[in-house]
């Protein structure tokens, strides 16, 4: 089997691909391909049985030209320095493509959270928050949830930070519970932007989303919300999966019922009246729309030859390797990139932060309306760049728009010292 792509190298390749269409100096591009700083730390945490266990953790601050660093915190056994660097870089260009005033950051702990009790996870999270304290802050670096973290962890981090700083600073982190300074609409925001991107993409391509068949890989926050909202548009979700495998029903799944089943049993597998399929089978199904919503590198150059979908909208970060991108571009499969399609998460995180700083809270309707405006505007700018510069694919178009914005900020501020 081919060696798995290094996500940091994938990010750098994506930047190079777009830079070829931009009139920007090589030294400036080089700077945009590397993080400003990376914290690597080892958390020594007492377990329930009294033993102390060590956990490797990272925070990468990639680029702050357009505002405070912003990006999630992931708990996963495969977290690595390069993965965190890549994810923090994607955040820079994601915030730029939707034009919100943030730079990019990302963090993670090397851990399988399922193997620990809630009290252990709380101590691990608070220990990480203590290490992060000098780096983060409402105007400095604002973490958020990512894979295997959610409102619970965000609440712990906010509380640890506020306690140590002896202040109230709800805007130090986003994705919090509503009762703790969170925003309406945040939980569904990532899936909502994926749905909006798919809707706009189908419209642009002259295709009907109503009646379109859809497969979704990964049924966590991003995947399950995308599936639900796309079903609400009249599409037929025929297959979904998680890390235990997938389920298929050519007549369409009831996405809410599947989510309820996963909440009860921990997996989508064995949902009644469906056929079991592997993740690879799901990714190669003959559908109108494929939504990878799990992790990086789901589709490599080899598998890309077998993808049968006409349109791919990326809910996950980095689900396609650069080789897969080349193959799908060649095969004229339209890929709408992660940095636009899942930008709803960070956009509503931005709204949450604005509300926290103003101590003035919006209705869910206002959040959803503002999000729709941001994603539709960004989609139009992406298509405009794609057509104006005659670009090979929509990913390159997104990076052309985003890099231009970061370079404009950098140029107008100047280099110092
Ligand atoms: P999550 O933990 O809620 O869900 C992840 C899902 O992927 C789970 O259902 C898991 O079982 C499944 N999965 C893991 N490995 C898999 C595999 N090999 N095959 C199939 N399924 C697999 O995480 P999430 O927040 O939904 O994040 C998913 C992706 O979306 C990540 O790439 C993340 O960076 C990205 N993302 C999330 C947000 C957000 O706000 N949550 C925002 C932007 C991007």
UniProtKB/TrEMBL annotation:
Any Pfam family the entry gives: ELFV_dehydrog
Any single biological process term in GO: L-glutamate catabolic process
Active site residues per record: 106
Source domain of life: Archaea
InterPro entries: Aminoacid_DH-like_N_sf (IPR046346), Glu/Leu/Phe/Val/Trp_DH (IPR006095), Glu/Leu/Phe/Val/Trp_DH_C (IPR006096), Glu/Leu/Phe/Val/Trp_DH_dimer (IPR006097), Glu/Leu/Phe/Val_DH_AS (IPR033524), Glu_DH (IPR014362), NAD(P)-bd_dom_sf (IPR036291), NAD_bind_Glu_DH (IPR033922)
Binding site for NAD(+): 190, 221
Residues given in the record as substrate binding sites: 70, 94, 349
Keywords assigned: NAD, Nucleotide-binding, Oxidoreductase
Record-linked Gene3D superfamilies: Leucine Dehydrogenase, chain A, domain 1, NAD(P)-binding Rossmann-like Domain
Ranges of residues in domain Glutamate/phenylalanine/leucine/valine/L-tryptophan dehydrogenase C-terminal: 183-414
GO molecular function: glutamate dehydrogenase (NAD+) activity; nucleotide binding
UniProt-annotated site: Important for catalysis, residues: 146
Summary of subunit composition and partner proteins: Homohexamer.
Family the UniProt entry places it in: Belongs to the Glu/Leu/Phe/Val dehydrogenases family.
Protein name in the entry: Glutamate dehydrogenase
